């Protein structure tokens, strides 16, 4: 009996940690989403589905959902395509490749706040480096973060720059796991580079792509720090992500019930999206190489 219980005793501290800091807060958020609370009131009256009705009837919610969806639809394919291309060039184990991979990975482990502050200076209208360069070329200044048509693309660029290194490392590992026998067989058949990539490399790296797709979509729907530092959701709500709205409602307006309802809706949406991806894309992923 003790031998059978030993593995569970080893993981018990981790399970306790996850219960206290993950599972219990999730259940508490679900409970608070049906109540009205402002952090200070000693009572938390039950309001049923009123918080959800309020969210679904507000323009801010649908705007933040649209902005987040557009952000995900652009940034996720961009990240994966760039990462696969870069990893394909850096797959060889040379000194230059290892140094380049380390340099590309460095932004991933750098403070997000620091990166956002630096790029706020880079894209500044009055004293930014990019506008300074454009001025040298004779062009007018561009209001990168004040223009509703451009601000979201600036956020996409900064987020892609920060996360690209992680994707490159994972793709490099996936590419290195592919047996050279497949490439030798393709070479014997006279396959060109594009044909080999389309028929050999891409199908065999699909498990890695699927993993990164799931992680990238979740990350896209949880973007907060870059937006909060660089644009605060502006201008005119052009970069107002779901999590930024959640923070504003819950911790600025102190409407904990509505904020919890928004968190629950985001959780349900991500779970549903993961199930759809597993059903549509997961069936096409083969884990034998």
Automatic annotation (TrEMBL):
Transmembrane annotation, as ranges: 7-26, 69-91, 103-123, 247-276
Alphabetical UniProt keywords = Cell membrane, Membrane, Transmembrane, Transmembrane helix, Transport
Name assigned to this protein = Carbohydrate ABC transporter membrane protein 1, CUT1 family
**In Gene Ontology terms, what is a biological process of this protein?**
transmembrane transport
Q: Where in the cell is it found?
A: Cell membrane
Q: What is the source species?
A: Tropicimonas sediminicola
Q: Provide the membrane topology annotation.
A: Multi-pass membrane protein
Protein family: Belongs to the binding-protein-dependent transport system permease family.
- ABC transmembrane type-1 domain: which residues? 61-277
Against InterPro entries, the record matches this protein to: ABC_transporter_permease, MetI-like, MetI-like_sf
Tell me if Transit peptide is a UniProt keyword of this record: no
């Amino acid at each position: 009996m003790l031998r059978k219980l030993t593995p569970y005793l080893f993981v018990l501290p981790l399970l306790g940690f996850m219960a206290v800091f993950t599972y219990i807060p999730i259940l508490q958020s679900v409970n608070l989403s049906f109540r009205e609370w402002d952090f200070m009131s000693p009572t938390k009256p039950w309001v049923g589905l009123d918080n959800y009705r309020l969210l679904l009837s507000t323009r801010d919610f649908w705007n933040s959902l649209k902005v987040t969806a557009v952000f995900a639809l652009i940034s996720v394919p961009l990240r994966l395509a760039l990462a696969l291309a870069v990893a394909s060039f850096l797959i060889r184990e040379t000194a230059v490749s290892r140094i380049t991979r380390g340099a590309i990975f460095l932004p991933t482990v750098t403070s997000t706040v620091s990166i956002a502050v630096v790029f706020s200076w880079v894209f500044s209208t009055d004293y930014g480096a990019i506008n300074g360069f454009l001025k040298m070329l004779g062009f007018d200044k561009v209001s990168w973060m004040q223009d509703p048509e451009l601000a979201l693309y600036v956020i996409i660029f900064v987020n892609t720059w920060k996360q690209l290194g992680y994707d490159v490392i994972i793709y490099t590992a996936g590419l290195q796991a592919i047996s050279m026998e497949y490439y030798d067989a393709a070479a014997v058949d006279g396959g060109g580079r594009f044909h080999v990539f389309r028929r050999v490399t891409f199908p065999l790296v699909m498990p890695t792509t699927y993993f990164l797709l799931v992680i990238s979509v979740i990350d896209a729907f949880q973007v907060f720090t870059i937006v909060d530092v660089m644009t605060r959701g502006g201008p005119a709500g052009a970069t107002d992500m779901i999590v930024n709205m959640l923070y504003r409602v819950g911790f600025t307006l102190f409407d904990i019930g509505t904020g919890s309802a928004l968190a629950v809706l985001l959780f349900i949406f991500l779970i549903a999206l993961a199930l759809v991806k597993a059903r549509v894309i997961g069936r096409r992923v083969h884990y034998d190489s």
